[in-house]
Each structure stands twice: as C-alpha cells, then as structure tokens.
C-alpha cells in the first residue's frame, strides 16, 4: 500500500504563519490564494519535513518571527514526522512508538515527488532515460537505437549513391547502332588480308586463263606441227575456264570503312557499356537500400516489442529515438496537464511506496482540466497537493497572509417563477 499524507501542521516556515491541512487520501488537493500569501511555502515545508535538510529553504524562518519553524506530518502508514526547533531537529515515530530517522523516510518518500520541478526541468532525453531505467530496458533499447541509427546512416548513404548512379546513367548517351563488344582493328585487318589473298588467287587464275588462251591460239596456228601440244593446251584451257567461270571478287569497302571508323564505333560501344554498368550499379545500390530498410524495420519492431512488453507506468507512454512520448506526442508538444500526468506516473513508478506528489503553480490548467486530472489521480490511487493562484471553488483551502482558511463556496441563485 503506497504511503499518503494524512494531515500536516506548519508554523513559521517562509511566508507561512500557521497552516493545518487534511488532504483526501486520493485525488487533487488545491491550495489556493493570491500571490505572495504562502502557497508555495506550504509545499516547501512539506518537502523539507520529509526530504531532509538538503531541501531546506535558504530563508526557512518566517520573516519577523522569533519562534522557530515547526512542521508535523502524519502519514497514512501511521508514521508521524516532526521537524522543529532552531536546528530543525527531526523525529520520526512509527505506530508502535519506535523512533527512526531520515533513512526510514527515504524508503517510501520519492525525492522527485517532493521536487517535481526537478523532473519537469530535465531534458526530454533525461526524462526518457529515467523512464527506461525504472522499467529496466535502458541498455537494450540503447543498443537497438544505436543499431537503428547505424543502419539508417548506411541506408541514407546507399540511397544517395543509388540516386546519383541512376541520374548519371540517364544522362549518358545510347547508341543503338553500336555493336555489343569493342571492334578489334587487328581482326578487321586480318579479314581484309584474307579477302585480298583470295582476290589475288582469283587474279592469278585469270592470268592463267589468259596465258592458256594465248597458248591455245598458238597451238591452233601450229596445230599441224604440234597436235599433242594442242590437245594439252585445249585441256588446260578447258580446266582453267571451269575454275574461273563462277569467280566473284569480294568487296573490302565495308571493312575499309570500319577500319576508318573504328575509334568512333568503339567510343559508342564504350558509352553503351558505361551506361549499362551505371544502370547495374544503380540497381545494386537500390537492392542494398531495400535490404537496409528491412533491417531498420526489424530493429524498430524489436524496439516496439521491447517497450510493449515493459511494465510502463502509464498507457500511451513510450520512448521514440531517445525521447519521451505520450500518445505519440513528444514532451514539448504535450499539454500542461499531460506533462503533469506523465511526470506523476513516472515519479510513482520510481518508488511505488510513495503515493503522493507535490505540484506548484497549476495556473495553466482550466477547471475542466483540473477535474480530469483529479479524476485520473483518484483512479490511480494517487494523492497530489498543489498550489494555484486562485480563490475559486476549485480550491480545497485558501492561504491568506500565511494562514489557512476554508474556501467560501459561492451560493447559486435559483430563479423561480413569480419571485422578484
């Protein structure tokens, strides 16, 4: 069972002359009053009484008083705390009459509950670290977030390179008429030489045909003197005619033009290959980007699972990229009431034995928000003692010139027919 404040008496502390309070066990108790009347002094006195001399105000004694401060706080577990005298002597007495000291109080009094502004004044990261520490996932979440940031930076770099490669590939020229591979000058020259050799052989055969034609003519003229020679020449001529009948010379014009254009052709081939490589590079980086995205999503899911499985003090409370969030909003985007609700829940989680919290200056809340906050406190079994510059009906007690007095509830006038 968490410990609450059952009653308290304060005398001659800062602006307080004499104040008595009996807060409700659960919910919100508002100490109202105008400025400089002693509202905050009441909270400072409670913090000093329960938190020790480290929370003692620098000007603890009420100005003009010859009587030293006196504070008496009765807690719901039956312990009575008395701090009084010029040396602010502490007495802690349990229900059985046994005496204790500050160490006994520290077991069930959370320091942030006495000094909530200290928690509220932390950076968003510090608040998140406090939450993660108390739910026991700080180290593991830090590892996951470090891994996520590493993957994110790597993916960002890969994405930039992929975009650059893709843009570079699009800007490069494409030559549809270029071959797939580089053209070799040596191969073209070899092909040219082969054709020239075949053409030379054709020319040799033509010359041989002419030679035998001449010999045939001579043989015919000398037929009568050289019949045998004529027959041989005739046979040779016939053979030569057959060999040369279907011969056709091949043109080297295309090869000669290719040799002349080889640098231009190869430049086009090189450009096409460069573009193809750039496109392949861009696709490879895109694949890496997708893989890194999947890894980041896996790490983020592990973070979500880690927090979902943690014993968080408030539904909707989480940590995103090292910052505290509530219902998806970071600290600086939360309303004042949401910030108080989150802070109160975390403070209670820090020490479940402490069932109360002190809150100064609730002026930023309207009455509807105050009521909602009060109902939430009641539902959570929490007690809050707060101050507000007001003398309205929402106040539980009014501090005026250092004294406590009851709130004067305004009567509601009801109009009835026929009554003037």
From TrEMBL:
UniProt feature coiled coil, ranges: 202-302
SUPFAM superfamilies in alphabetical order: P-loop containing nucleoside triphosphate hydrolases (SSF52540)
InterPro entries referenced in this protein's UniProt entry, alphabetically: P-loop_NTPase, Rad50/SbcC_AAA
Record-linked Gene3D superfamilies: P-loop containing nucleotide triphosphate hydrolases
Entry GO MF terms: ATP hydrolysis activity
Keywords from the named record: Coiled coil
Domain Rad50/SbcC-type AAA: start-end pairs: 7-267
GO biological process assignments: double-strand break repair
Keyword Phosphoprotein: no
Domain of life: Bacteria
Any Pfam family the entry gives: AAA_23
Protein's name according to its UniProt entry: RecF/RecN/SMC N-terminal domain protein
């Amino acid at each position: 069972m968490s410990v609450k404040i059952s009653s308290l008496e304060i005398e001659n502390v800062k602006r307080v002359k004499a104040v008595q309070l009996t807060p409700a066990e659960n919910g919100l108790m508002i100490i109202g009053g105008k400025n400089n009347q002693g509202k905050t002094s009441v909270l400072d006195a409670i913090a000093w009484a329960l938190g020790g001399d480290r929370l003692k105000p620098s000007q603890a004694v009420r100005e003009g008083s010859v009587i030293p401060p006196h504070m008496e706080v009765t807690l719901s577990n039956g312990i009575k705390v008395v701090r009084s005298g010029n040396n602010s002597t502490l007495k802690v007495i349990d229900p059985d009459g046994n005496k204790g000291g500050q160490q006994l109080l520290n077991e069930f009094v959370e320091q942030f509950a006495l000094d909530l502004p200290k928690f509220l004044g932390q950076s968003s990261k510090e608040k998140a670290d406090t939450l993660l520490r108390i739910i026991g996932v700080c180290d593991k979440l830090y590892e996951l977030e470090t891994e996520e940031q590493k993957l994110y930076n790597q993916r960002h770099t890969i994405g930039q390179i992929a975009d650059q490669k893709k843009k570079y590939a699009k800007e490069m020229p494409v030559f549809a008429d270029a071959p797939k591979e580089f053209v070799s000058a040596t191969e073209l020259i070899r092909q040219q030489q082969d054709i020239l050799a075949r053409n030379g052989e054709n020319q040799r055969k033509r010359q041989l045909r002419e030679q035998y034609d001449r010999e045939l003519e001579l043989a015919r003229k000398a037929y009568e003197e050289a019949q045998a020679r004529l027959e041989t020449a005739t046979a040779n001529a016939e053979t030569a005619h057959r060999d040369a009948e279907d011969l056709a010379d091949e043109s080297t014009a295309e090869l000669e033009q290719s040799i002349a254009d080889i640098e231009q052709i190869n430049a086009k081939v090189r450009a096409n290959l460069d573009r193809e490589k750039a496109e392949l590079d861009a696709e490879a980086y895109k694949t890496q980007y997708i893989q890194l995205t999947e890894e980041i999503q896996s790490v983020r899911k592990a973070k979500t699972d880690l927090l979902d499985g943690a014993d968080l003090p408030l539904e909707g409370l989480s940590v995103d990229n090292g910052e505290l969030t509530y219902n998806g909003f970071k600290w600086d985007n939360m309303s004042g009431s949401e910030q108080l609700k989150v802070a109160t829940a975390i403070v209670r989680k820090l020490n479940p034995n402490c069932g109360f919290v002190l809150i100064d200056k609730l002026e930023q809340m309207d009455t509807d928000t105050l009521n909602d906050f009060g109902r939430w406190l009641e539902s959570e079994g929490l007690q809050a003692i707060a101050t507000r510059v007001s003398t309205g009906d929402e106040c539980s007690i009014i501090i005026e010139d250092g004294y406590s007095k009851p709130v004067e509830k305004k009567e509601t006038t009801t109009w009835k027919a026929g009554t003037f």
